Amino acid sequence: MLLGDLLDRSVALEERAQRLYARFAAGASDAALAGFWAQLAAEETGHAEAVRSARAQLSFSAARRTRVDGWAEALAEIEGRLAAAEALGADAGLDAQLSAALALEGSEIDAMRQAATAVAAGVPPAAEAAHVRELAAAALRLSADPHVQLEATRLLAQAHVMGR
Fold first, then answer.
1. 3 to each of 23, 35, 49, 119, how far by Cα in Å?
2. Each residue of 136-150: pLDDT tens digit?
3. Cα 20 to the chain's mean position, in Å?
């Protein structure tokens, strides 16, 4: 895959995640929950902007000559998780929303964005700890569903092991 294509796909994925979290915010049952989802949406907007900035700094020839292979499987996984989350109906409960968000954030979406922007512009990876930990902590606090609790705990452990 060409670096320019990976950056373009990364922007599109971050924008989809932003729209998903904004939709969850719009349907939230209370202001605090709406604020939580809105914050996640804003962070996804920041991610998309960071990738756009790196893409803008990349020369046309570098975008079309630099190969970054090995992301096809991760892209397919991210696309699948996003599609599943987007398919949640308006009647989906908080547990389903949290589970979908945890699955998405547990994917390679952040690693892909960080790798692509680092290769494109030498931009150091953004600190993801707050984003991931905030989602996991909210899931643990807001849900009694064992699946959601397990996914949140797994995401916290993954972030810890990766030093995020």
1. 30, 35, 17, 8
2. 888 899 998 888 888
3. 10
